[in-house]
Amino acid sequence: MNRPSFAERCFDLVNMLFLVLLMLVTVYPIIYVALASISDASSLMAHKGMLWHPLGFTLDAYSYVFQNPMLLKGYGNTLFVVVVSLVLNIVLTAFGAYALSRKSVQYRKPLMLFIVFTMFFSGGLIPLYLTVKGVGLLDSLWALIIPQAINTFNLILMKTGFEAIPDALEESAKIDGANDFVILFRIVLPLSMPVIAVMLLYYGVAHWNSWFNAMIFLQERTLYPLQLVLREILLQGEANANSGASDGDAAALAASMKYATIMVATVPILFIYPFLQKYFVKGALIGAIKG
């Protein structure tokens, strides 16, 4: 085995340094938010530049956020929406992707054109609201689940992943008497775990961060998801700050609360990602290999 040349070693070193720098640039905003959320609010307001350590350790911002009685209720509503939506998303997207990936399906290309058309043109907010109201989903958590059952981009990505599975597997299964449901659940889905992992991450993050639909479709505060509850907390903090309370302490606390709410909303997703990481890169690249 030939030893790497001097030029190759220099390239590896420069490449490694560049990737480390890129990693720091990517990770530092999260570090900054985490440190700012546990810093003294007044010291944080006066601080300029980068932040590498807490400025007077305090959990006042988290204490204020968790004092809100709606926070745990918001977590529960969001978890319900995320779990139920993911089941519905994966099942319906898998059904659609499997049908569109089969070469024997008639009018497959025209159907794909109609589906892709929805990525660029939609009916708009008012028709969506009237539809949700007309079917009786208004002021219900199902209004956050059913209208978002299938995402066109995710459908195309899963369809591309299914098309990468050799046709010989399907043909041999049909010879043994398997129908389409058996082929989908016992052959296609087990061989498409990287794609499924990407779907879980894409759909899960979208549902976890969603707040606009909840603001439009929900009026009952007990149904608010986490993001809408955190929005209320921030607005309340800003209102207290604008009221001119005690020498700017309220304004400083409101600024610190922004970082605390970001951490409260982000940490659960950050803990889940490492479990899907080994599938993520392979699954995400499928759509780039074959369209």
UniProtKB/TrEMBL annotation:
The keyword Phosphoprotein does not apply. One of its GO terms (biological process) is transmembrane transport. It comes from the Bacteria. Coiled coil: none annotated. Pfam families: BPD_transp_1 (PF00528). Signal peptide: none annotated. GO terms for cellular component: plasma membrane. Keywords: Cell membrane, Membrane, Transmembrane, Transmembrane helix, Transport. The keyword Repressor does not apply. It is found in: Cell membrane. Belongs to the binding-protein-dependent transport system permease family. This is Carbohydrate ABC transporter permease. The lineage of its organism: Bacteria, Bacillati, Bacillota, Bacilli, Bacillales.
